[in-house]
Amino acid sequence: MIWDDTGFLLSKNRYNENSLIAEIYTKEHGKISGIIFGGTSKKIKNYLQLGNQLFLNYNSKSDNRIGYFKIEIFKAYSPIYFDNFQKLNCITSSMNLIKLLTAESQKNIMIYDLIDEFYSIICKDNWLQDYIYWELQFLKILGYDLELKSITNKKIIDNKIFYFAESSTEKKIVPNFLIDKSEPVKDLKILLNGLKLIGDYLDKTILKPNNISFPISRSQFISSLK
Known about the structure:
Distance between the termini: 47 Å
Number of strands: 8
Structural class: alpha+beta
Radius of gyration: 19 Å
Number of domains: 2
Strand content: 25-35%
């Protein structure tokens, strides 16, 4: 099996002294794992940064055996943010979420396009609010729509609008910007509350039921924002 495609680098791990095993989310083939021979060499490793977009040729002897990649750089996104610790952590966290939550060899052009859209978001100065919407859209594509509007109750307290999500065991305040997406937010604390709410949902609804640990990269990303 031999094919050419483009994709975003999700993860890389050393295979032997000279090679790496990489996971790449491709346009036509979904998430694919393969060996990059010589991946630790100076010629290649500089552009094997998580999130970079690559041209790739994939070769595998059978569907049951791991294949190998020949790669070239298409767009080097990550180096743009080497001096921006928050955005670099965001790239790592996002690629790790895609790695954890997508199935092997299942094409989904909406996810591929969403990764592309990710880079049009984080290049902005006020990017965090749109990134939170990006996470919600990613979960929705996977079939995990929070449907916040349908599960929240609106209350007006001291002429201010509040939204609450209630269950038999708990009551949570839902940040207004998650309901009214026309509302711009500059308060970092409110944005962090939005990220926490999504993180709690992710952990309880998706990760724990599938025996997946909460990703350290997302915790590090949130910590870098504080």
